[in-house]
Amino acid sequence: MHLKCPHCSTVLNVTSPAGTQVQCPTCQGMFVVPQMTPQVNAPVITPREPGSKPLRKKAQPKTEQAEGAEDAEGEEELESGGIPVDLILKIAKIVVLPMFLAVVLFFGLVAMGILEIGSGDDVVDESPYVNDGVANSGNQIQDVMEAAEKGDIYINWVPAKNSATMEGFKVKINHVDWGEVRGRDEGGELVTSNGRPYMNVYLELSNRSDKTFDFKSWYGNQFTAENGAIRTAQLSDDDKNMYYPLKFDDLADLKWWTPSKTFKPAEEGTDAIVFDVPEDFDPNKVENLYLDLPGEAIGRSGSYRFKIPKSMIQGL
């Protein structure tokens, strides 16, 4: 073996066994041959060519403990269906919660009356008016119904559960009452029609535009169109019977009645109309009523037209 002299660092070829004392021939120094540790063969590293893939390491055998843990995780995944709970909560937060809040907001707006389901479109009557001094001449509700049935004109009879809007002024039928008219005179005393029933129509009004409307009640009033034709509110049935509006002179106050009002944007109000019917009139035989309200009540031409089913008539 080759050893360096500890005194002069001369490399010597020593053949003596470990523990033997030898003398360096160069410096004459004495030293003991040390015990040599056996050398471990280093692994041979083979360089790979450029562009070649590295060799894959062999998978180490799993310990029993690791295998047991993986088996337990597999059983838990199988029991839970393999769907992480965190993922479900995340989907619910991103998708389900906004949809729920949108539905709540929608029905909240409907309940407040800001948004309406199935509200009617603008209703405009293009029928000609005749200036001959006869009420509703050229716009008689029976004539309009017959012309619509023949297809000569198109009339949009708005279902009474919906509202109709003209230039942003909305009208909706709250209910129709078959019964006695009750109100108060100028002294505040109760006045009735003494048990005589009439058709009473109660309306909800609202200005949904940025304009101002000067409103005049449909109760007992006549309106003059631009060409001088006279118009009133009109009520009819499936048999095209005409029921005329009434006004009781001794009534100073009537439920829901608004004689006149200036509706500013977003303002709301109500109105009532009383229609005369024959004493032998039987409302149970009526399937539908047809209501025509002149747009002149808000300073416009045209009509609000509603189709009222018997189910909306109270007092039957």
UniProtKB/TrEMBL annotation:
InterPro entries: Immunoprotect_excell_Ig-like. The chain crosses the membrane at residues 94-115. Gene3D superfamilies: 2.60.40.1240. Residues 67-77 have a biased composition (Acidic residues). It comes from the Bacteria. Keywords: Membrane, Signal, Transmembrane, Transmembrane helix. Residues 42-77 are annotated as: Disordered. This is DUF4352 domain-containing protein. It comes from Bremerella volcania.
